Structure formats: structure tokens, C-alpha cells
Amino acid sequence: MLTPRSPRKVAVVGAALSDCGRVDEATPYALHAQAARRALADSGLDRSVVDGFASAGLGTLAPVEVAEYLGLRPTWVDSTGVGGAAWEVMAAHAADAIAAGHANAVLLVYGSTARADIKAGRRTSNLSFGGRGPLQFEVPYGHTLVAKYAMAARRHMHEYGTTLEQLAEVAVQARANAAANPDAMFRDPVTVDDVLSGPLIADPFTKLHCCVRSDGGCAVLMVAQEYVADTAKAPVWVLGSGTAVSHTTMSEWDDFTVSPAAVSGRLAFERAGVRPSDIDLAEIYDAFTYMTLVTLEDLGFCAKGEGGAFVEKGRLLRDGALPVNTDGGGLSACHPGMRGLFLLVEAVRQLRGEAGEGQVGTPDGGLPELAVASGTGGWFCSSGTVVLGR
Fold it and tell me: Maximum distance among all alpha carbons in the chain?
């Protein structure tokens, strides 16, 4: 009888950005390649160790097409398409595969020229999710993705008294964090009044309640524990993860004030053996201010309905009680499309102490020990949460 071998520990040993922000002279494939090369260089490992590959959002047969462009021939692949949460979900899959011995080193890569394509006229319409299947019953009414998030925000305001000023605080603090990030697209400070007085996009969201549109890419290399001795830097361990999906149609969403992070977060924390109160910093998907607020509730950093009060008084700043989106997030740093992988890159950099002026510290002057990255896809349709530790 065969004796099952113990699961291997999994670490992130490489994390890097491509050029980000305004990148007019590169293709999405080039940004994938640039980010991949930089992540491998960051790890100190040779590309020959990579036997797993994860990518989504580019090419007809992603990740086959992107892997071919990068000159890789992986024996383990993933291209799970659940929107912005795809990267946390694929990181969870990769960690499971490595732990089980199905792969040794998995490279996750993303790149997009969403901003440049629009400026150059290569992309002339917004993303369509189609009108077949369950969506056919809602598409004729014309509500857009931003409108769906806006409806959910209004429901939270109705149920719990959350205010526009509290939602605006999320944008203000994200911009303050971006000020210390030289790679951030927007770094000038904004006030609550600036947010509230901006042009209306979808009630109650004004322009600064919404993420920026940028170009950019990033990559993360995850490996089995036996590779760590040969890496250039100290590992960041994957301690636990969780995934969840809930709905595609708004009519099937049980409660507009609860996201699937309520499930993925609980699972990730349980599997990591930690509590929300143990976490030193959080990287949260923030296409809109409401996403940050409700995800904080659903991850357990505050009770349901208390998100508005929680985000006040600078709590989300990099020197606040719970630093959130320490690079400036999608609201100020970058948002090329599916931002989930950027959350993992920033969490790794913070845990390594590589964030420069934007570095989060602990009360005793040390480096943070634990971080959580939580991605969201669709209109709160999916969630993936990963807990990382030094």
C-alpha cells in the first residue's frame, strides 16, 4: 500500500510589475513578457524550472497562446475566467497543484493595454458580457457594470446608513497611499469634497469613486518549498486560500450588501489558521469605493453594516490601523482591467520590506508578518482570497 506523501509548502519567490500607467508603445503580449522576465529575475531562478503557467484575458486559447509567446511549454495550466478575482483563484489552484506534486513552479502573468487601445482607437466599445443565457433577462434594461455596483452601494446606504462621505474616504485614503508610490498613475492628494463634487458616473458614484483606466502588467512565481534555498530573496509563504462564486444576474443576488468574499475570506482564514485581527495589511480589489468597504466587512475586519464607520479617521492609510491598498489600489495606482494579480504583487513587496516610501511598518518598527489579498470578479459574482505570511 502506498503511503501518501505530505503536502509541500508553497512560497511566492518572484513578484514584479511591467511598465505601468501610460504605456503607448507596447502590446499586451510585450507587457506579459516584460513582467514575466522581471519576476523570474526577482526570484533568482532560471526559466527552465517553470512547469506551470496561469493566465487569463488575452488570446484565443489563453493560456496556450501566451505561454507560446513566452517560450514556455508547461505541463500544468490554468485560465480560470472569473473576472478580477481570477488571479487569486488561480493562485489557490496553483498552490494546491504544487502542494500535491502536480507542478513545481507556476508562473502567473497578466498584461493589458486597455488605456492605450482606447486612446489609439483600437478599442471602441466597452466590454460586453453578452446577451445569452441568464443574462438575456437583464441585458435589455441596459444597466452597465458600474450601474450594478452603484445599485449595490445604494442598497448598503439604505440598509445601514452608510454615507457618501464615508465612501469618498476610501478614494481619499487610496490617493494618499498612492502618493508614496512612484509607479502610481495619480499621486496628487484629493479631498472628500473633491470626490463628491466630481462628475456623476452612476449614482451615487462620481468619477473619483471609480477606478482609473491604465496600461500595465505583472507576474508572480510560486514554487515548492525545496526551491526556496536557491532563490534570491526570502520567501513569502502561501498560508491559506478560499474561493467562491455567487451569481451573474442581479435578480439572483440574495443580498446586495454581501459579497462572495464573505465565503472566500472565511475559508482562507480558517485554512491559514489566522484571524482577521492577526492581519497586518490588506490588498482589496477596488474598481469602485463600495467594493473596498463591503469587502472589509465580509472579510471580518468589522461587522456587517459598520464598514462606513470603519473606513473613517485614516484607518486605511499605510500608517493606519489596517493599511489597505498600500500602492494606491485601482482607484489611484493602476487598473488595466483584471487587477487581481497586482494585489498579490503588492502584498509580497510589503511583506519583504520592498515598498520604499510606501512601506508599512509595525508598532515596534518591524516589517508586517501577515497580509491578505482578496480579489473580486464581475459585479461581486466571484471572489478569491489568499493569506500570505513571512
Answer: 70
* pLDDT number for residue 138: 84
pLDDT of the residue at 118? 85
Read off the pLDDT of residues 150-163 as tens digits, 9 standing for 90 and up.
999 999 999 999 99
Q: Decide: 50 and 77 in contact? Cβ < 8 Å.
A: no
What pLDDT, on the 0 to 100 scale, is given for residue 131? Answer: 72
Look at residues 131, 137, 184 and name the one whose alpha carbon lies nearest to residue 325: 184
Which has the closest alpha carbon to 389: 283, 221, 237? 237
- Cβ atoms 283, 372 nearer than 8 A: yes
Provide the 10 A C-beta neighbour count for residue 330: 29
Task: Name the stretches of the chain with pLDDT < 50.
Answer: 1-2
Cα–Cα dist 54/75, whole Å = 11
Reference 344, options 358, 369, 325; nearest CA is 325
- In angstroms, the CA 69 to CA 58 distance is 11
- Nearest residue to 372 via CA among 296, 309, 304: 296
DSSP letter assigned to residue 362: -
Other Cβ atoms closer than 10 A to 189: 11
Contact 383, 263 (CB under 8 A): yes
User: Do 347 and 339 meet the contact criterion of CB atoms below 8 Å apart?
Assistant: no
Report pLDDT digits (tens) over 284-295: 999 999 999 999
Q: Give the span between the Cα atoms of 114 and 134, in whole angstroms.
A: 27
Buried b (16+ CB within 10 A) or exposed e, 194-210: bbbebeebbebbbebbb
Tell me how far apart the alpha carbons of residues 154 and 148 are, in angstroms, rounded to a whole number: 10
The residues near 363 (Cβ < 8 Å, ≥ 6 apart) are none
Residue 318 vs residues 180, 186, 285, 360, 385: alpha-carbon distances, Å: 9, 17, 16, 6, 20
Is residue 79 within 8 Å of 376, Cβ to Cβ? Answer: no
Beta bridge partners of 88: none
SS3 of residue 354 by DSSP: coil
Give the model confidence (pLDDT) of 41-58 as tens digits. 999 999 999 999 999 988
pLDDT for position 5:
61
